[in-house]
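EI: anyone free to look at a 331-residue chain?
SC: sure, send it
EI:
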Amino acid sequence: MNRTLAKSGLLSLTMLATTSSALASTFVTGPAVSSPGPGLLNVYAGINPTGYLSRKRFTGSSWETSWTTFHPLPDGTGVIPTGDPAAQFYGALSTQQEAVCIPTNPQGNNVTIICSVHNLFDGSWVTLGPADNVNGALALAAQDTVNPPTQTLYLFAISNGFLQYATFPSSGRGWSNFARANGPSTSPDGGFASNMASVAAVGVGRSINICVRVNGMIADQYWCTSSSDLSSHLTWTQAPGSWGSKPSLASNSLGLMLGGVSSFDTQVWTTAGSVGNWGNPAPRSGDLNSGPSMVGWGGDTIHIFARARFDNNIWYTYFDHGQWATTWFPL
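SC: here you go
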């Protein structure tokens, strides 16, 4: 392990890269990733041949050797996501919990959302409503409360063409009903006129930063907003770039990073900055058939996970100490 990183309590990224297991699984969804802090990562995806939502952890020195079914149902079967999952740690550092949400349609009807908030209660799956007809990817984000260090958890979905959100308070008293947030002014009804609409979100202090994929004239666009009060009128601005996947947002000591697969190739492209003040997108390589899932875990470090087009496995790359890794690594 790098001694400087070891002394500071941070993980050597070289160790993280070289302790991944050999390729063993293929996946039916893109990944979700969450981190409570340096040296800890949870990655989720629907796995072949069952389709069950599964998890793999990095615990500070190595990856787990295999994927395990996440929170099986009482009959022992797993839950089957119909789209990419979402995951988020939240709460005071001493009592952090993790939420995992997926879109699913076990009865073959409209897609609904189920969530598990674990280490808070038994981790059983709870169905949320009334956000049905869910499009694209879900997103979870944590917002600092007025009296830190507690946080409120937000779940976002595009439902019936509108951005909807539900909250899970730090008191753990259960999810709220879904409420509608307004979309960009380019839409006359405040919705998102896209059959591929999907949402990304990340909380920084009291601010929730949100980006949504919407149809453009030539290629899809990302529109973003930042607010501490989602019930107020939201101001949206277009991010640069032409996009072909769901967006992903992450934060680090330098600010925000927005990423997605370009509409012109199969690489992840990223742009850094803040809502309304993004830099030019730049390619980060890859040959992918899912949108990325990004997470910051301390300092300027950000990890990107996605499903590779050529083998349907989950791969990752990272940004650390001002530099990008020169390759992707198999999970």
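EI: Helices lie at 3-8, 13-18.
SC: 👍
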